[in-house]
Amino acid sequence: MTDSASNAGYADEAPRLFERYEFRDPAAIHAPWAHFFPEPPARILDIGAGTGRDAAWFVSLGHSVLAVEPTDALREGAAKLHPEPEIEWLDDILPDLPKVMARGEQFDLILMHAVWMHLTESERAEGMGKLAQLLRPGGRIAMSQRHGPVPTGRRMFEVSGAETIALAALHGLQNLLHERAESIQAENRAKAIEWTKLVFEKS
């Protein structure tokens, strides 16, 4: 899939992103909210899976992952870098996720790291409904939102935890975590970039 509006800019940056993302330890990145993740073996949907770093980490813990990534350069490179058979790669994109929805599958955990702020308000409204459908009862969504200057060539919108919590509630998703903090990376802190972490559970 070529870049659509929501994933614009990622294809051109793919080589640099592999160097940047794969360098960071996923266990350390997810430590603040890992206690919300299911015990293995669980079925995980990683939306905007990027370089496959997180998908591979989940597999190392005993999970299986459907990794959704619309940017060809990232998805194809990630599949080569992380060839674990427990990771299935799929070319699909929010808000409608037609290929994922067509599978008729539900998941224990949906991970969306740095994805939600790429969507317009109407796309977020549509996307949340799809996410709720894709969760099993008791399943959870773990979502991080980036706040700060928009990188050149990207499309981002200012989103908030409060807005997302209200939208999720319309679809029967209860908020379990809402934290906003400055980036842990020095280069991002210098740019006043902050992150919001949100966890929701389907009743």
Question: Can you tell me about this structure?
Answer:
This protein is 34% helix and 26% strand. The chain has helices at residues 10-23, 26-30, 53-60, 72-81, 98-102, 121-134, 161-169, 186-189, and strands at 43-47, 64-68, 87-90, 107-113, 135-147, 173-182, 194-202. Helix 1 (10-23) runs parallel beside helix 4. The chain is globular and about 40 Å long. The termini are far apart.
Head-to-tail CA distance between termini: 34 Å
CATH fold node name: Rossmann fold
Order of strands side by side in the largest beta sheet?
3-2-1-4-5-7-6
Structural class: alpha/beta
* Percentage of residues in DSSP E strands: 25-35%
| Fourth-level CATH superfamily | Vaccinia Virus protein VP39
User: Any idea how many domains?
Assistant: 1
Q: Uncertain regions: pLDDT < 50 for 5+ in a row?
A: none
User: Into which percent range does the helicity of residues fall?
Assistant: 25-40%
Cα shape: globular
Please provide the count of β strands. Answer: 7
Global mean pLDDT: 91
Descriptive labels:
203 residues; alpha/beta; Rossmann fold; 8 helices; 34% helix
Short description:
This protein is α/β, with parallel strands linked by helices and 203 residues long. 34% of the residues lie in helices and 26% in strands.
Blueprint (SSEs and pairs):
Blueprint: H1 10-23, H2 26-30, E1 43-47, H3 53-60, E2 64-68, H4 72-81, E3 87-90, H5 98-102, E4 107-113, H6 121-134, E5 135-147, H7 161-169, E6 173-182, H8 186-189, E7 194-202
